[in-house]
Every structure is written in C-alpha cells, then in structure tokens.
Amino acid sequence: MALWQEANRIEVLAFDVFGTVVDWHGSIVRELAQLAPAVDGDAFARAWREGYRPAMARVMSGELGWTLIDDLHRMILDDVLPRFGLAHLDEAQRAELNRAWHRLAPWPEVVAALQRLKPRYLLTPLSNGNIGLLTRMARRAGLPWDCVLSAEVFRAYKPDPATYLGVAKVFDLPPERVMLVAAHHDDLAGARACGLRTAYIERPLEFGAAHPKDVSPRPGNDLHCRDFADLAAQLGL
Asked: What pLDDT is stored for residue 161 in this prediction?
C-alpha cells in the first residue's frame, strides 16, 4: 500500500514544538533586541537553549524533582544573564523575559498547513514544554490544536517512552495510528521505538542563519518533508 493511502489509517498527528512548530531562535533574538539591543542576541538565544538538555537531565537523574520547563528555563536564564552583562535585570524583567518562550512565533507556513490537516487528523503538540506555556503560545500564534499534550501530563520528558505511548493511550489508539512530526532525529527515533509513525521536518535555520543545520534524510522515518505544507501534501491534502 502506498504511504499516502496508508496515511489514512493515521488518526493523530503529534507535533514537537520548539524548532519544529515555532522559531525559538529568531523569536528570542527579537525579544532580546527590544530589551538589550547591544547584546549579541544570536549567542544569547543559543546559550539559553543549550542549557535545556542538561537541566532536564538533572530531573531525569533524580537530582531535581519534577520541574516544569518554565521553571527550568528560568534556572537557565539566571545562569546565562551574567555571561552577557545582564545580571542587573530585576525580578520583574527576568520573569517577563522568561515568558518569551510563551510568545515564540510559528514558522511562516505552520498555521495554514495545520488548518489543512485539521479536518482529517486530530492535532496535538507533544512537547516538553508545560501546559500553560503551550496553551498561551497556541492562543497567541493561532495554532489550531485539538488538545494540548505535554510532558507535564505524563510527568516524563521526551524521549521517555511514557510520552510517546501516552499519546496513543490518551486517544485509545495503537501506537502505529499516531504519527510524531518533528525536526529532531533523536525525538523521532524515540517515537519510532515505541511503534509510532514518524515524519521529519527540515528546519535548516533552527539555530539561526549563521548556524545552518544538516537536514539530510535519514532512514527509518515514514516521511521527510521540507515544511508543514509539504507534510500536508505528502499526506494527500
């Protein structure tokens, strides 16, 4: 059976968010340009994001108890600010800057493509971001999710199997009727190991124009797509 025909058996599309749905790098650069135009926004955005995996690792190892991504982002921010000469920011300024993650802008084609997909598929984020963050982001950006699933629901960060299998459980479906859509091969590998279908999205500018990402196809994924519009087309929409 051709993939576009087989795709009709998929009921849920679950989307990674940071880098896949939204342009975190460009959004953070723009936020910093308003707050501190003399600071290198490119370097700041990448430094803030680089703290993400080590912070989650502290939770997964048991060093920290369960922690929302909003709180991890704030811990990383407090560590990063002095390195960029911003230690003078007060509590209100830090809290507002930390909420920049709620205001991340989607990639240009995302909203229209999701609207194309919505009549056929149930659409949900599957992100390590917490529910409040993802809900505010969706409201601001017009992301037409049918529900919001987060690591917070499962109290486990991706790539813990509880997250991928949790989506299937929420919708009472076998894993193969759920497709994870992501711009990160490690995320897709985790989903594939749990029996989900997978679609890779090229986001060569995830880390900014000065740091292009290798988006070459890799074996194992069901689909390899330029963007969400291409995903919709490959799914027959």
From this structure: 97
CA distance 210 to 150: 31
Cα dihedral across residues 12, 20, 35, 76: positive or negative: positive
Q: Before 159, cis peptide (omega within 30)?
A: yes
Note the helical H segments in 19-175: 24-35, 41-50, 52-60, 69-80, 91-98, 110-117, 131-141, 151-154, 161-170
Residue pair 158/190 in contact (Cβ under 8 Å)? The answer is yes
Identify whether the C-beta of residue 53 lies closer than 8 Å to the C-beta of residue 128. Answer: no
How far from the centroid of its chain's Cα atoms is residue 105's Cα?
Answer: 12
Strand 122-127 to strand 178-182: parallel, antiparallel, or no bridges (unpaired)?
unpaired
pLDDT above 50 (res 98)? yes
Report the C-alpha gap between 51 and 103 in whole angstroms.
19
Q: Across residues 216-232, what is the average pLDDT?
A: 96
Predicted local distance difference test score (pLDDT) of residue 7: 54
Exposure string (b/e) for 59-97, b if CB count within 10 Å is 16 or more? Answer: beeeeeeebbbbebbbebbeebbeebebeebeeeeeeeb
Query: Over 80: is that where the pLDDT of 37 sits?
Result: yes
* Burial state string for 129-160 with b = 16 or more CB within 10 A and e = fewer than 16: bbbebbbebbeebebebeebbbbbbbebbbbb
Predicted confidence (pLDDT) at residue 178 exceeds the cutoff of 70: yes
What are the structure tokens assigned to 226, written together?
């330029």
